[in-house]
Design brief:
binds flavin-adenine dinucleotide, six-stranded mixed β-sheet, six-stranded antiparallel β-sheet, globular, 12 helices
C-alpha cells in the first residue's frame, strides 16, 4: 500500500456502507462519517446504516432480469448489503424484499464490529483532507452540497428530470420516421411521431387531466423553466407544446411530404438504439397514467417501456463529464464518488456503485489497475452508464436503474424471453472470466446465486471484517 492513512467515506447509506465494508475487507482503514443521529435528511427516519427510505423491496431476484443479475453479482463479490438482505428476507414472490429494521441493524452491526472501520457521527460540512469517498446520496446535506459545488460548478444537479424511455423494437416504424430538424446532422439520432391537429388537441387535454404524483413534503415543486414537466407546459396553453418540445418545424413526414401539426421526438438512449427517450417529456404523471396517455401517441400503441418518467429531488453529478474512469473527480483526484450521487438510481444500483468505487480506491492505494467487471455484466453495465460509455456522445445525463439498454446489445433477432436468457448467460460467462482478476475472493456462480428460500441464511455468510 502506497499510503495507509484512513480513507474517509462520507455517508453510511447503501453505497457508503458497501464501500466502507469492501475497503476494510481489502485491508484499508476507513473513517466512516455519518450525519445521523445528530442530523437526518428529510427522508431518513432511523439512526441505522443503509436505511431503506421508501419501499422495502430490492426488486426482482430473477437472475434473467437486469436487477436480478446485479443481485447475483453482488452476492458473488461478498456484498454486505446483499448478505444482510438475504438474512432478513421476507416473502414477496420473486422480489427480494426485506424486514427493513433487521436489515439495517445487520449492516450497522457488521460495520461497527469491524476493527478497520471507525465510525464518526456528525454532519460533514467541509471537504475533508486525504482520500475521500462521497456517498451522501440524493439528499446530500445543503452545507456539503455547497462545498462540493465549489469543485463541480454547475454540473451538480438538485432535481432529476427523467423522461420515459421506450424499447426500440416496440415502436411502429410504419408511423415513426427518422429525421433531424432541417436534416441537420445524419438524422439517425431521432425518430419522430407525427400528430395531426385532432390527435394533438386530444393529447394535450389528456396531459392536463392526467393524474400526477404527489411530491414528498420536502420536495417543493420548484421547476426550472428549461426543464418543465410536460404536463405543466400543457396546462399553460393548448399551443405551448406545439411551439416547444413538440414543434414540427423542419421535420417532414415522408408519408405526407409535409410538416405534421406537432411531433414527439424520440432520441437514442443507448448507442445501439435499443432504447429511445421522449425528448422533453420529463413528467410527474403517475406511471400508469404515463403508459395510458403516452401509449395513445401515433407509433407507440404497442410501446414497451424501459423506464418511466419522474422528477425527484435528487442531488447528482454530471458524472460522464466530471469523473475520471476510476470514479474520482477529474478536478480533484483524491475525491471519489459512490451511489446515487453519481447518477445511478436505486438501492441496489447505489450499493453496486459503492462496491465499484471501493475497487477503484483500492487500486489507487495499491497502484494496481482498476479493472471493473466487463460491460456485459450488470456491474459493468452500470459503470458504462456512469462513465457515459453506454450513451450516445453528448446525450444529457440522467439517473437510471440498471436496465438492458446499458448493456452492449446481444446480437441477432430473438423473442424477449430468449433475449433475456442471452443477456443473462453472457453476463454470467463474462463475470466468470473476470472473477480471477478481482482483488478479493469471488463466490462461484450460480448455485450460490439462486436466492435462498425465505429466512434461510445465505449459503456462504460473508466473513466479518477483521
Ligand atoms: C424519497 C426517496 C425515496 C426513494 N425510494 C426508493 C425506493 O423505494 N427504492 C429504491 O430502490 N430507491 C429509492 N430511492 C433512491 C435511492 O435508492 C436511495 O436514495 C438510496 O438510499 C441511495 O443510496 P445512497 O447510498 O446513494 O444514499 P443514501 O442511502 O441516501 O445514504 C446517504 C447517507 O449520507 C448521509 N449524509 C448526507 N449528507 C451528509 C453529510 N453532509 N455528512 C454526513 N453524512 C451525510 C445520510 O444521512 C445518509 O445516511 C429513493 C430516494 C428518495 C430520495
Amino acid at each position: 500500500m502506497t499510503n495507509d492513512s484512513p480513507i474517509t467515506v462520507i455517508g453510511a447509506g447503501l453505497a457508503g456502507s458497501e464501500c466502507a465494508y469492501q475497503l476494510a475487507r481489502l485491508g484499508h482503514r476507513v473513517t466512516l462519517r455519518e450525519q445521523k443521529p445528530h442530523k437526518r435528511s428529510p427522508a431518513h427516519q432511523s439512526n441505522a446504516f443503509a436505511e431503506l427510505v421508501c419501499s422495502n423491496s430490492m426488486r426482482s431476484d430473477n437472475p434473467e432480469s437486469a436487477i436480478g443479475m446485479l443481485h447475483a453479482e453482488l452476492r458473488r463479490v461478498g456484498s454486505v448489503i446483499l448478505a444482510a438482505a438475504d438474512a432478513h428476507r421476507v416473502p414477496a414472490g420473486d422480489a427480494l424484499a426485506v424486514e427493513r429494521e433487521g436489515f439495517s441493524a445487520e449492516v450497522t452491526r457488521r460495520l461497527s464490529a469491524s476493527g478497520r472501520i471507525t465510525v464518526v457521527p456528525g454532519e460533514v460540512t467541509e471537504i475533508p483532507e486525504g482520500d475521500v469517498v462521497f456517498a451522501t446520496g440524493p439528499l446530500t446535506s445543503d452545507a456539503l452540497t455547497a462545498a462540493l459545488a465549489r469543485f463541480t460548478g454547475e454540473k451538480l444537479y438538485f432535481y432529476d428530470a427523467i423522461a420515459p424511455i421506450v424499447a426500440g423494437d416496440s415502436i411502429d416504424l410504419t408511423v415513426a420516421f427518422r429525421a433531424s430538424r432541417y436534416d441537420k446532422g445524419d438524422g439517425a439520432d431521432y425518430l419522430n411521431l407525427p400528430l395531426d391537429k385532432e390527435e394533438y388537441q386530444r393529447f394535450v387535454k389528456a396531459l392536463c387531466e392526467g393524474q400526477k404524483v404527489t411530491p414528498h413534503a420536502f420536495e417543493e415543486p420548484k421547476y426550472f423553466e428549461g426543464c418543465l414537466p410536460v404536463e405543466v407546459m400543457a396546462a399553460r396553453g393548448e399551443r405551448v407544446l406545439a411551439f416547444g418540445p413538440m414543434k414540427p418545424v423542419g421535420l417532414t413526414d415522408p408519408r405526407t411530404g409535409r410538416w405534421p401539426y406537432a411531433v414527439v421526438q424520440l432520441r437514442m438512449e443507448d448507442r445501439a438504439g435499443t432504447a429511445w427517450n421522449l425528448v422533453g417529456f420529463q413528467t410527474r404523471l403517475t406511471w400508469p397514467e404515463q403508459k395510458r396517455i403516452f401509449g395513445t401517441l401515433p407509433g407507440l400503441q404497442n410501446a414497451e417501456w424501459v423506464r418511466m418518467g419522474q422528477i425527484h429531488r435528487n442531488t447528482f453529478l454530471d458524472s460522464p463529464r466530471l469523473l475520471a474512469p476510476d470514479l474520482s473527480l477529474k478536478a480533484e483526484p483524491r475525491l471519489f464518488f459512490a451511489g446515487q450521487i453519481t447518477g445511478v438510481e436505486g438501492y441496489v444500483e447505489s450499493t453496486a456503485c459503492g462496491y465499484l468505487t471501493a475497487l477503484a480506491v483500492h487500486a489507487r492505494r495499491t497502484q494496481t489497475t482498476f479493472a471493473p467487471p466487463p460491460g456485459t455484466t450488470a456491474l459493468g453495465a452500470l459503470y458504462r452508464h456512469v462513465t457515459g460509455e453506454a450513451h450516445p456522445p453528448g446525450a444529457p445525463y440522467q439517473p437510471t436503474n440498471v436496465v438492458y439498454a446499458l448493456f452492449p446489445p446481444v446480437e441477432g433477432r430473438m423473442k424477449k424471453p430468449e433475449k433475456r436468457q442471452a443477456y443473462a448467460s453472457r453476463s454470467r460467462a463474462d463475470f466468470d472470466v473476470w472473477a480471477p482478476s478481482a482483488p478479493h475472493p469471488v463466490l462461484p456462480a450460480p448455485a450460490l446465486c439462486s436466492p435462498p428460500p425465505q429466512h434461510a441464511v445465505a449459503a456462504e455468510p460473508v466473513a466479518p471484517v477483521p
